[in-house]
Every structure is written in C-alpha cells, then in structure tokens.
Specification:
The structure is a homodimer of 251-residue chains. The first copy, chain A, has ten helices and four strands; from the N terminus they run E-H-E-E-E-H-H-H-H-H-H-H-H-H. With 251 residues, chain A is an alpha+beta fold. In chain A, strand 1, helix 1 and strand 2 form a beta-alpha-beta unit. The first copy, chain A, is globular, with a radius of gyration of 18 Å.
C-alpha cells in the first residue's frame, strides 16, 4: 500500500491504482466527514488504500470516482462495475453490514432509527460552530451560544441513556459519527480570543465521554494533533489550505 | 379516525389524540417530504392518524413531538415512551422494516446503499427547481438549466438500469422518494411565462416512468391536483400560505 501520501491536485495524473480487490478510500486529511469513514475502517480493521484529494484544486479525474467531487468516497474494487459509494453515513452503514465485527449500528430497527435521528441532530452543532472553528472573522456573535444550545441535546441524551457511550457500555455508531468534531473543538482554545473551552458543568457527561472516546483504538489511529488542526484552519481562513501539513514529519 | 382535518396553528389547543396504539403521522398537506412518508403508509396500508401542522404559525405544542418543528414526523404510540421519528428517509426505512409488505428497499446492502445515494442525488434537482416551483421572482436565470442538468442523472440512471421503475419491474423506494416532486413539476406549466414542461426527448424515459408511477395506487391515494399545488404555491409566494385549500370540497 505504498501509494503517494499527498493530496492529489488539479492537473495531476490519475493514479495507477492496483487491481487487488482492496477498498479505495478517497479522503481529505482534515475532513471530519472523511474521518467518520476512516474511523469505521480502523475500528473494523478493514484493509484499504488511502487516496487524498485537494478539495480546492480538485484533480480532473476525481469526478470518475465521485461525480459531485465530494469526499469521503469509497470504491468497492472487488464488486462488479467497481461502484463508488459516497455520503459518510451511507458508507458507514454499508461497511457495518459487510464487515460486522464489531457491530456498530444497533440491530433493533427502532434504536437504529433513533440513533440516525440523533446523528442528524448533530448538524446544527456543526453549522453553528463552523464559523468559529474556521476562525471566520464574520462569525455571528451568537455562534457560540447557538453551538452550546445545539450541544445541550447531546449532554441531555447521555444523561437519559445513562451509559458511558451513546451506544451503551461499548463504543458505537453515534459515538464515532460525532467524534471528529470533538477532536476539532479544542482548536477554539487556541484560535479564539477568549480561549474558548466547553463548560465543565454544562457539559459534564459529554466531557467524560470525550475523555473515554479519546482512548479508543480507532480514534487514536485516525487522530491528528490539535496543533495541526489549528494550523490547517488558519491556512484555510487565509484562502490557502495546507492539506499536506497532515503528513508533517511523516513524508 | 375522525380527527380535525385542518392544519393546527399557533395558539391551538394540543389535540386530545386517542391512545389506541395507532401511528400518528404529522404532516403539512403540500409538503413533498411529508408525502414521501404518506406514500409508504398508503403503499403498505398502515393504519394511522393524520395531524396537519401549519409550518409558518406552528402550534406551540408541536415541539413536544418534533423538537425542531419539522414535518414529517411519525409517533409510534404502541412502543414504550412513544418516540417520534423524524427525517423522511429514516422514517421510510423504519416502516419498511416493521411493515415489510410490500418490501420497498433492496435487501442487498450494496443496492440499498446505491439507491440511497441516488435519492441523495435528487437534492440538487430540488434545490435548483425550488425557486421556479415557488414562483420566486428572484429565481436565478439559469435555475431551469441547472434543474435539467441535475435531472439528467435520473434519465441516465433509468437507461442504465433498463427497467420501467428505478426499483425494477415493480415500484420501490427510489420511485416513491422522488415522486412528490414529479407531482409538482407540472406547476411550472401553469406558473411560468414560458409554460415550462420537461423536454420529451431529453427526458423520454423519465416521462414514461412518470406516466407509469402516476397509475400506482399509493401515488393516487396521496395525490393532490396540480391546480391545487399551483394555487398553494402562489399563496406561499405572497407570504400567506393557504394550507387548508388541500381540503377544498372535502371539509
């Protein structure tokens, strides 16, 4: 799996990927939605090739894999016609069915629906925090309040469920699907004037959950340092995203 | 099931719904996402109470069912804690698992993932056509071109699948999930200056598919007349949506 470890750009030659039946995972190293898929690949120990894509200067050939140019994408090379899946949650569900060890989605249809709805409820958290995380100077002044209000839903839900993980005694799909943003929230301590951190009282359960999830093997395997996340966001804010800093010291 | 047949408004009393274990379907009569759920309820002949909600002047009590105030919502009254499901596609998948006759989602995990991705590909169709459908005077001049380009994906896919329905020889989940907008497209013939209609050559397969789907029992059961759709859109455009005209002649 000695593929190029850099983000492919516009004008790049389409990589000559081996026809070995191994999954092809298309990603951008700092993309939280891509990390969702990466977490499942890691948790289930699924062999895969990683192909990184520059999202600003997209390689022309990438639309052959993902027609709308989105990441993450996962090409199933061992299947007829070698289809490429997109949408992180759809990919996650497919992987969970094809590689059931460990099972991450609930098997009960109702709990599965409720967990998917809870994952959807994370969208307002993401949209509220996005301008703050990305150091946008035009972030609405009430962005952090909106973010906290949206996050309250998850604190309340953890209390209601009464378990260390959203999935129960062990980690599961809700935990993995919302994790990537928790890895990025500490950027705010570095990048905001008020050195923002989650309130230890208001988010007591969620902060315990965060510390617990941080110890998970797949989480550790896919993690990037908060300094790197912060550096990337700064480069993105000035319009020159430095995707390849993800590999600092690794190239 | 003799519930009030009008849209509940702000200030309304929370309806005293019977505790009979029957599903409660919360909807707005002209909402295409609500119709998705209605189509499944009809196709599977699932008993349900219909409760209509005014989306501009939302009843205060509605957040007890749908915390974000969204429709459609489906309350499962026969289940412990009587949870309410939201998000049309999540509700559809739940109903398909609980009421498998007729089965509408593919049972093969890959085909299921591909069908869900195809349903997601309908979002650009919806967002492009929305300003035209809603007679928005500020609709971008290239809205119809964008709409047609997004719709090409579905014409191409029908050709590729080579079957009368997206699901095969009989109607299935993709067909039902995209149908509500096809019921509304003919509004454009009535409401646009150029009396817009889908091009019979460019969308040959899709127009045949439309005529076929229009004959489906569930589609007929949930259908509203194009004149009513057009009238509703006009009322919405002037900022005074007339939800209850859905029941014209039926009240």
């Amino acid at each position: 799996m000695a593929l190029p470890q850099k983000h492919f750009k516009r004008g790049s030659t389409k990589p000559d990927l081996p026809e070995d039946g191994v999954l092809r995972y298309f990603s951008m190293a700092f993309c939280p939605f891509s990390q969702r898929v990466h977490l499942l690949l890691a948790a289930k120990n699924i062999p895969h090739h990683k192909i990184y894509v520059d999202l600003i200067e997209k390689p022309e050939w990438y639309k052959d894999y993902s027609p709308l140019g989105k990441v993450p994408a996962l090409q199933l090379t061992a299947v007829e016609d070698q289809p490429t899946l997109v949408e992180s949650l759809i990919i996650a569900e497919y992987l969970d069915q094809q590689y059931p060890q460990p099972r991450l989605f609930p098997t009960d249809p109702l709990q599965k629906a409720l967990d998917k709805i809870l994952i959807e409820r994370f969208a307002p958290v993401v949209s509220a925090v996005y301008p703050v995380l990305t150091c946008n100077a035009n972030a609405p002044p009430d962005a952090l309040q909106k973010f906290e209000k949206a996050l309250d839903v998850f604190e309340t839900e953890l209390i209601k469920r009464g378990t260390p993980f959203f999935a129960g005694q062990t980690i599961g799909i809700v935990d993995y699907m919302i994790w990537p943003w928790f890895e990025r929230f500490p950027i705010m301590k570095l990048n905001t004037k008020q050195k923002y951190e989650l309130d230890v009282k208001r988010f007591e359960k969620l902060l315990k959950w965060r510390d617990l999830v941080a110890q998970d093997g797949a989480v550790q395997k896919t993690a990037l340092d908060v300094q790197l996340h912060a550096e990337f966001q700064k480069s993105k804010t000035v319009g020159n995203p430095q995707y390849d800093i993800a590999f600092k010291g690794k190239l």
